[in-house]
Fold this sequence. Notes:
The protein is an all-alpha fold. The chain is built from two helices and no strands.
Amino acid sequence: xxxxxxxxxxxxxxxxxxxxxxxxxxxxxxxxxxxxxxxxxxxxxxxxxxxxxxxxxxxxxxxxxxxxxxxxxxxxxx
Length: 78
């Protein structure tokens, strides 16, 4: 009877450990998928632009501003 109770306790502990591992894995998967879902819109446009050889939008602002300023200065000088 003692051996049967010890084996039953051992199986219960193994089962509990497996359930904890499964629960932690599911929680980690949920967090990881949420982070990937949230950051994909930030990463995807940049990788597409790099693939096509286009600079990202945030780098074009200063160049466009400088072009507009130089055109304005040129127009005033003429």
